[in-house]
Each structure stands twice: as C-alpha cells, then as structure tokens.
Design goal:
This protein is an all-alpha fold and about 150 residues long. The protein contains four helices and no strands.
Length: about 150
Amino acid sequence: MKRDRFELLSAYLDGEVTPEERRLVQTWLSNDPTAKCLYNRLMALRYGLREEDCPPSCEADVTLVGVFQCLNRRFRMVSMAGAGVVVLGVLNLLSNTVGSNPVQWSVAQTSTDDGATLQIALDQPAFPIPSVAPVDGPTLRPSDGISIDSEL
C-alpha cells in the first residue's frame, strides 16, 4: 500500500496521472498527514536534484584534457620520487668510498688447493676452556632430607 502511494505521488509530481488518480492524490494530501509528509519529502528531493551543481561543460575534449593533466601530474610525482631514490643511492655510495677508511669491495675466492681438507679434532676443544674453582661451604645433597624441588 505504501509503495503504491509512493509511486502514485511520484507520478503526480511528474504529471503522469489520470484525472481520477489526480483527485485521489489531492484527497490524500488534504486528509492524510503521512501522505502530506511523503509529498513534502519528494518535493524537497526533486528541488535538490534540480539545484544540484552540474559542470558547465561536459564536452569530451575538456574531460580528456583534465584526465591527461592528472596523469601528467602523477607521472611527474613518480619521476621525482625515483630521481630522489637514485640521488640518495649515489650519495650513499660516495659517502662509503670517500673518507679516512674507504670501504674496499672484494670478491670471495675459492682455494685452488685440491689436497686441502677440513679436519676436526674431537679430543681437544677449539679454544681453551678455563677451569672452575671449587666452591667452599656446605653443599646440599638429596640425602640430607631437603628436596631440591621444595625450594622452587
């Protein structure tokens, strides 16, 4: 029912109703406050759509020029960012090579000695391990009656 009223009111505003439907809508507007409210909302919507700002020219040439300007602006921004990265890279390269201790790049070389093999000594550590001095004082043994877990 509400949908029918909405459609009939919309048709009434567009001038697409028969004389019988026009009389029906006019009785709704004079007697029913909800129909009057809906009519006012439709009128406000219609007025808002008519007053909406439209671009003065919708020509294809003007639109095309605007699109290309936007693309050119984006291309310039990307180009400037790329140039900045290149400049920073060059400055970094120059700052590492100029100074009191310039960095020297070297390439790892493989040994040409075919007889060399890797040997691991299992009975001797690779570096000396210091000996630990014994601790003076009482030592706790599990046989003394105190469990080690009880202190935790």
